Amino acid sequence: MEWYLFHYSRGSPASAVSLTGIIAADESTGEKIYSFDVSQNPEGWERFGIESIPTLVIFEKGLEYAKILGEKNRQQYELIFS
């Protein structure tokens, strides 16, 4: 089973664009996507090995499979989820 953890920070323009895109892609694809605001939970940087935001972490069978860094739009996320 595959699921996603989206790391973002409030106040970050790139996070705002990506968050809008990921919400729209989630609604259209029905993927299981969780979000984590590192500005509210700074321990997330180290805990999840996040080097930059936004970052989408893909998990498969409970293990980290891949990280996708940087700003993306709805269409880009839909491709990732397909």
Topology (elements, then pairings):
Elements: E1 2-8, H1 13-29, E2 33-37, H2 43-47, E3 55-60, E4 63-69, H3 74-81
Parallel strand pairs: 1-2
Antiparallel strand pairs: 1-3, 3-4
Helix pairs in contact: 1-3
Describe this structure in words.
The structure is a single chain. With 82 residues, this protein is α+β, with helices and mostly antiparallel strands. It has a single domain, classed as Glutaredoxin. It is built from three helices and four strands, in the order E-H-E-H-E-E-H. The protein has helices at 13-29, 43-47, 74-81, and strands at residues 2-8, 33-37, 55-60, 63-69. A four-stranded mixed sheet has the order 2-1-3-4, with helices on one face. A hairpin with a 2-residue loop joins strand 3 (55-60) and strand 4. Helix 1 packs across helix 3 (74-81). The longest helix is centred in the N-terminal third of the chain and has 17 residues, at 13-29.
Short description:
The chain has helices at residues 13-29, 43-47, 74-81, and strands at 2-8, 33-37, 55-60, 63-69.
Q: Please give the CATH class.
A: Alpha Beta
CATH superfamily: Glutaredoxin
Number of helices: 3
- Measured between the Cα atoms of the first and last residue, the distance is 14 Å
Strand order of the largest sheet: 2-1-3-4
Mean pLDDT equals: 90
Keywords:
82 residues, alpha+beta, Glutaredoxin, 4-stranded mixed sheet, 4 strands
